[in-house]
């Protein structure tokens, strides 16, 4: 079974112009003090009471203004350290703000960090009830929805096991199941799709589709541009605590790839050879040409990248790298093994597609697209990391990074 991307933005139901504001952020600033020296023990503090307490100031958010209408699926994207998670924690009330104003209308359900609010010494049964009450349900409502929460998390056999004995995947399933079952008006989600196994990640996708149809307000922080384009009505791009762009999801997704343009390279070339090409997007397709986010192992897959040329170039080398959750490179598709790629003129826009039989093991894979000039060997002049993703579902878990076809033979000695 393959899950395809949702309808294009132009076909999505529009948020009514008169929809009330669900989240309002006005002039929000947030800084952190990073001391040059930290006391780790009482003895150290006693021995050095007059040591200079100097610190650096990190400006995590700078003048953020934002209004999200009720019923919108809103994405927040940016590179590591851009302020995405800090903003989400300010919205949730985990962090106080230095200046500005935040107003959230309705019940708020945050799903921000793995295991926050869970007591590891309590069972799943007790943790579900306690967390549901903390998120606004009455004790009666929490108990009434207990079976549904456990069924969604697929933890029926482990309800009386203490959470300290849970794996991280089991904990995140439980946390997500509670967060989406409390009928919150506003849901905050931070990289939930980056954890869990492939089947649970597909469940998250399905749940998002259901919540979108119910008109919930969802604020979604992620590095996954394919998820942003699939789910979000609008998105905001942050860089060093400032808003670089706020607009349609596809537009922000493209600018995110431009921000990442040339940031890293698979061989980290010291030369740029100009900026003759830009990587715009990367995604996976099935044989019908549908963009996909999940795929069954063994099916034919096309890994695609969209590029735009600013200068004429002869025989550039294209590559798409698949990396798993552990950030290990599992598979690299490269164009030079198929011969010269051809001549491209300034202004040309092309989609480069690599077709392969998907024998990857069950996991989530991030796609990094890159282009190199032949004269620079393996050094990339344009590389955009984690522009797309693919969740592979397999009938069996082998523990390998790929599942090659093989036969069993038992020999008698």
Task: Summarize the structure in words.
The protein is an alpha+beta fold. The protein has nine helices and 20 strands. It has helices at about 40-45, 85-90, 125-135, 140-145, 145-155, 170-180, 200-215, 225-230, 250-260; strands at about 5, 20-35, 55-70, 75-80, 100-105, 110, 185-190, 215-220, 235-240, 240-250, 275-285, 290-295, 300-310, 315, 315-325, 330-335, 345, 350-355, 365-370, 380-395. Strands 1, 11, 12, 13, 15, 16, 18, 19 and 20 form a nine-stranded mixed β-sheet that branches. Strands 6-7-8-4-9-10 form a six-stranded mixed β-sheet, with helices on both faces. Strands 3-2-5 form a three-stranded antiparallel β-sheet, covered by helices on one side. Helix 3 packs parallel to helix 6 (about 170-180) and helix 8 packs antiparallel against helix 9 (about 250-260). The longest helix has 16 residues, at about 200-215. It is globular and about 65 Å long.
Give the amount of beta strand, in percent: 35-45%
What is Rg? 24 Å
End-to-end separation in angstroms reads 43 Å
Please give the largest β-sheet. 9 strands, mixed
Mean pLDDT: 81
Q: What's the helical proportion of residues?
A: 10-25%
Give the overall silhouette.
Answer: globular
What is the count of DSSP helices, taking H or I runs of 4+ residues?
9
Number of strands: 20
**Structural class designation:** alpha+beta
Short description:
This protein has helices at residues 42-47, 84-92, 124-134, 139-144, 146-153, 168-180, 198-213, 225-231, 249-259; strands at 3-4, 21-35, 55-69, 73-78, 99-104, 108-111, 186-190, 217-221, 234-239, 242-248, 277-285, 291-296, 300-309, 313-314, 317-323, 329-334, 343-344, 349-357, 363-372, 380-393. By secondary structure, the protein is an alpha+beta fold.
């Amino acid at each position: 079974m393959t899950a395809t991307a949702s309808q294009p933005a132009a076909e999505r139901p529009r948020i009514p112009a008169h929809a009330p504001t669900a989240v309002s952020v006005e002039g929000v600033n947030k800084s952190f003090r990073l001391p040059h020296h930290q006391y780790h023990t009482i003895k150290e503090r006693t021995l050095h009471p007059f040591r200079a307490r100097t610190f650096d100031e990190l400006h995590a958010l700078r003048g953020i203004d934002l209004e999200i209408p009720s019923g919108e699926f809103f994405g927040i994207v940016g590179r590591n350290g851009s302020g995405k998670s800090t903003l989400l924690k300010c919205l949730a009330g985990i962090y106080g703000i230095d200046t500005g104003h935040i107003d959230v209308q309705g019940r708020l359900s945050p799903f921000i960090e793995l295991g926050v609010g869970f007591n590891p010494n309590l069972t799943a049964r007790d943790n579900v009830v306690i967390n549901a009450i903390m998120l606004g349900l009455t004790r009666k409502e929490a108990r009434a929805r207990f079976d549904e929460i456990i069924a969604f998390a697929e933890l029926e056999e482990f309800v009386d096991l203490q959470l300290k004995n849970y794996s991280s995947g089991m904990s995140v399933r439980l946390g997500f199941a509670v967060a989406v079952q409390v009928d919150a008006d506003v849901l905050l989600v931070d990289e939930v799709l980056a954890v869990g196994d492939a089947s649970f990640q597909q469940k998250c996708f399905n749940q998002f589709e259901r919540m979108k149809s119910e008109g919930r307000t969802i604020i979604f922080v992620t590095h996954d541009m394919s998820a942003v384009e699939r789910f979000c009505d609008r998105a905001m791009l942050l860089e060093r605590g400032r808003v670089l762009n706020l607009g349609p999801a596809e537009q922000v997704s493209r600018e995110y790839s431009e921000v990442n343009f040339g940031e890293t390279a698979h061989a980290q070339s010291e030369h740029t050879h100009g900026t003759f090409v830009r990587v715009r997007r990367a995604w996976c397709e099935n044989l019908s040409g549908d963009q996909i986010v999940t795929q069954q192992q063994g099916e034919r897959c096309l890994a695609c990248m969209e590029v735009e040329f600013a200068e004429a170039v002869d025989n550039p080398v294209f590559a798409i790298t698949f990396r798993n959750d552990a950030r290990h490179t599992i598979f690299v598709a490269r164009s030079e093994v198929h011969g010269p790629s051809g001549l491209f003129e300034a202004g040309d826009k092309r989609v480069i597609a690599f077709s392969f039989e998907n024998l990857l093991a069950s996991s989530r894979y991030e796609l990094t697209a890159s282009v190199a000039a032949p004269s620079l060997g393996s050094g990339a002049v344009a590389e955009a990391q984690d522009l797309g993703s693919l969740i592979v579902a397999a009938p069996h878990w082998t523990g390998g990074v790929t599942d090659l076809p093989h036969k069993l033979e038992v020999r008698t000695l």
